[in-house]
Design a protein that fits this description.
Layout: E1 7-13, H1 25-34, E2 40-46, H2 56-61, E3 64-68, H3 78-91, E4 94-98, H4 105-111, E5 117-131, E6 145-157, E7 164-171, E8 176-186, E9 189-194, H5 207-220
Parallel strand pairs: 1-2, 1-3, 3-4, 4-9
Antiparallel strand pairs: 5-6, 5-7, 7-8, 8-9
């Protein structure tokens, strides 16, 4: 929860991202960016931390939890998942799931569905990100932009009907369109899923993406 007048952001990663692109993980890049703001305190956590980085104390202090998982989803314990789900639904902690975290256990627990996509294709081609709901707070200050190289996921996407589709992505030589920024309300908490950001590309270093991450943190934490 807010402490010393600052929004408390906890960013979790399994830290399997390539070290040459993300020496401190994707969450390290986002945390560094968020910490430039006087009213945000961003800290990182990982699987090998005590209680997998999501202890009762850590979650109690968090206004929003970011999550990046890729190949170690199964290592996250049911106890960790239950704590996260409870803090979102009962206390109103925000939750931001990044890219391959569509299969993360906490996210799937919140969605109550398989959260699978039709296809997963790493073709390294450009992606165009469009702003579908420009009035949404997560879209503040964001114009349509291009990601030079990306992996795409194909619709349909097995999730509940969202509250908002803030961004859509155009992929595969304009043959695929996907919901790239989606929101839900889960109990008292706000949830945002950001689809773009394959870890082998420096996508989370992009100013446009970092702006979306800041906006998502503020909105999910109800600071927007």
């Amino acid at each position: 929860m807010a402490k010393d007048g600052k929004m408390q952001v906890l960013l979790w990663s399994e830290l399997t991202e390539p070290k040459d692109i993300y020496p401190n993980g994707i969450t390290g890049v986002i945390a560094d960016d968020l910490n430039q703001y006087d009213n945000i305190n961003a800290t990182t956590a990982t699987l090998t931390d005590p209680e997998q980085g999501v202890s009762e104390e850590a979650l109690e202090q968090a206004d929003v939890l970011f999550w990046f998982g890729h190949v170690k989803h199964g290592d996250v314990t049911d106890e960790s998942v239950a704590r996260i789900k409870r803090h979102v639904e009962e206390r109103g902690m925000g939750f931001v799931a990044l890219h391959s975290s569509h299969f993360a256990k906490p996210y799937r627990a919140l969605m109550g569905t398989e959260c699978s996509w039709r296809a997963y294709v790493e073709d390294g081609k450009p992606a165009r990100i469009l702003v579908a709901e420009p009035e949404h707070p997560i879209a503040a200050g964001v114009e349509p932009f291009t990601i030079a190289r990306e992996e795409w996921y194909g619709e349909p996407y097995a999730v509940p009907t969202p509250d908002s589709v803030v961004f859509v992505g155009v992929y595969a030589d304009k043959n695929e369109v996907a919901r790239d920024g989606i929101t839900w309300t889960c109990g008292k908490g706000r949830v945002f899923y950001w689809r773009a950001g394959h870890e082998t590309y420096p996508i989370y270093h992009m100013p446009e993406v970092l702006q979306i991450m800041e906006n998502a943190a503020r909105w999910c934490a109800k600071w927007a």
